[in-house]
Predict the structure.
Amino acid sequence: PGALLPSHHHPGTQIAYIESGVLTYSVETASVVVRRGPSDAPLVVRRVAAGETARLKPGHWIVEQPNMTHHAANTGTVPVVIYLSTLFRDGAPAAIPD
């Protein structure tokens, strides 16, 4: 609770799955599609465009591309648990500040 992830982008593709808590997620450039359900038959929850903010809830997942700048926060009272899967070059940083 109270954690902030400052503005950044990733050096490759990253998949983020919200296990618990609610993440307040803001897109600065490009866009992201929020999905839920299995990857072979996902349901689209919504699309978050540049300048918009969404509340990612348990079961939601997104695919972040390297051209997308974003920031996030836990504005709730419980921890947010996020499972990440990344496709980055060996030795690349997890995030690049913007």
Notes: The CA atoms of residues 11 and 66 lie 5 Å apart.
